[in-house]
Amino acid sequence: MRIAVFFAVLMAGFLLVAQGPAPVTAPVQPIPYSHALHAGKLQLKCGMCHENKDPGETMGLPATSKCMTCHQAVKTDAEPIQKLKSFFDSKRDVPWVRVYQIPGYVYFSHRAHTEAGATCQECHGAVAASEVLKRETDISMGGCMTCHRQKKAPLNCTFCHEHQN
Ligand code: HEC
Ligand code: HEC
Ligand code: HEC
Ligand code: HEC
Ligand code: HEC
Fold first, then answer.
1. What's the domain range around 103?
2. Which among 101, 113, 138, 155 is the best mutation to test ligand 4's pocket, defined by most ligand atoms within 8 Å of the CB?
3. What percent of the chain has pLDDT over 70?
4. Given ligand 3 and candidates 49, 59, 134, which is best to mutate, with the most ligand atoms within 8 Å of its CB?
5. Residue 5 within a domain
6. Is this model's pTM higher than 0.85 or not?
7. Is there a domain that residue 20 lies in?
8. 92, part of any domain
9. Is position 165 within any domain?
């Protein structure tokens, strides 16, 4: 049964792949948020907006209220901030376009990787120097495998495709 499900999701994977590789150009975001400004110039810590909540798989994206802790007062006359405020007032998250995303049938944990010593930069590039984020590193299966081979982490199929906790 598990095997059948596994191959069914892999077929779905093949169909997605058949549509072509993910674009490497930066997606247009609903609000022109800049990591270079916030994480670079203002030196806000990554974890302020990306909390690695238990069990640690995701880093998550910040709630609109997080931005408003400053933007209730900062640059309130700027058009993007007025747009931000309208999301906040209607209690909506900003519909950010995802940059790094892997299919749901692959098991991935941020915490396991940071505990193994991997840095944000290794997998996401020079974020704090980027005005706009785009996919800079290879997070395809080949990309995962290259690092696993270098770091002597496991390479067997079930490690990423049918992980048992
Ligand atoms: C710790 C305070 C702080 C937080 C939190 C913060 N910002 Fe900012 N933001 C600033 C400051 C300071 C500026 C620069 C203001 C200036 O140019 O004088 C700025 C500028 C901006 C601008 C450019 C505005 C313009 O057109 O000039 C945007 C857009 C923006 N922030 C979006 C966001 C979003 C979205 C979030 C949440 C994900 C966020 N900010 C969180 C402090 C903050
Ligand atoms: C003030 C809040 C804030 C801080 C600080 C911040 N980020 Fe972000 N981050 C965001 C927002 C908002 C997005 C979604 C918009 C975008 O992709 O630019 C995002 C998106 C990302 C993404 C892309 C996620 C995806 O798959 O769509 C990565 C990777 C990322 N941040 C890494 C970092 C790293 C590394 C740092 C520290 C150097 C950092 N961020 C600091 C707010 C923040
Ligand atoms: C070993 C590689 C690797 C490392 C190290 C890593 N990431 Fe990621 N990151 C990924 C992958 C792969 C995804 C897509 C996950 C998915 O779609 O389930 C991702 C997704 C994200 C996202 C989108 C939201 C989410 O949780 O899916 C953010 C934000 C993010 N990473 C921030 C960070 C930050 C900040 C650090 C450093 C503390 C970091 N990442 C370290 C590989 C990595
Ligand atoms: C920068 C190098 C690097 C990259 C890129 C990387 N990994 Fe890893 N991964 C590691 C290391 C190191 C470990 C720890 C191995 C150990 O503990 O023996 C690990 C552990 C894991 C684990 C075990 C987690 C746990 O809960 O014990 C899984 C699953 C995994 N990686 C999947 C992935 C996937 C999927 C990708 C691609 C999206 C990926 N990795 C990309 C280095 C990397
Ligand atoms: C280190 C983690 C990792 C290991 C080990 C791994 N995979 Fe994957 N696999 C992935 C990721 C990540 C994707 C999704 C790639 C994408 O974004 O399309 C994937 C996708 C796939 C797909 C979907 C089609 C494709 O090529 O993208 C197939 C089929 C597949 N893997 C088979 C296998 C087999 C067979 C093995 C054992 C030889 C294996 N995988 C080992 C991470 C891994």
1. 25-137
2. 113
3. 84
4. 59
5. no
6. yes
7. no
8. yes
9. no
